[in-house]
Design brief:
Layout (H helix, E strand, L loop, with lengths): L19 H4 L12 H22 L2 E5 L4 H6 L13 E6 L6 H10 L6 E5 L7 E5 L8 E4 L7 E2 L2 H6 L4
Parallel strand pairs: 3-5
Antiparallel strand pairs: 1-2, 2-4, 3-4, 5-6
Length: 165
């Protein structure tokens, strides 16, 4: 699936359900201002990932979208993070109505495009999910980030067969 940039919205938001404030949120206190290119990439994330998942699941809370280099460095993000390009979002259930496994199953069932889909099972409201996009061929790489560190590859069978860790 190729990513097609949607036309700008009349309401000025990056997506049907999401605002620029949500897509640039940071608790670091550092400036986190996306360029025009980053903003277009965030529109791709909303259009192809977040808006369809919001329609399928209900309320989603974005915990991290775009990250400036300074923000990404301060929080210890990957040096190659798709967040710094505006091509990723971390999100979770707004109120705990669904968990990371529910999200992963919807991603697969609705053929949501992604390069990486990383499941983080810890934290409030059933953990959170990272979805990163990239231009060109995407790997559709499923990963689990256990609390003890590292990343473990996940198969679709595991995505569909595991309810909770």
């Amino acid at each position: 699936m190729s990513l097609v940039l949607p036309l700008p919205r009349n309401d000025g938001k990056p997506g049907e359900y999401f605002t620029w404030d949500e897509m640039t949120v940071t608790s670091t206190g550092l400036e986190n201002r996306p360029t025009a290119l980053h903003r277009n990439n965030l529109r791709l994330v909303c259009h192809h990932v977040l808006d369809p998942l919001r329609r399928a699941l209900g309320a989603i809370r974005v915990t991290s979208g775009f990250r400036s280099i300074a923000v990404n460095t301060k929080i210890g993000g990957s040096k190659h993070s798709a967040h710094m390009k505006g091509m990723a979002a971390d999100f979770k259930s707004w109120n705990g109505d669904f968990n990371i496994w529910d999200i992963a199953r919807k991603v697969d069932a609705h053929d949501i495009p992604f390069d990486q889909c990383i499941l983080y099972p810890r934290g409030e409201n059933g953990g959170w999910v990272h979805i990163g996009l990239k231009l060109g061929k995407m790997r559709r790489q499923w990963l689990l980030k256990p609390a003890d560190g590292g990343y473990e590859p996940l198969s679709l069978e595991q995505v569909w067969g595991i309810d909770r860790l």
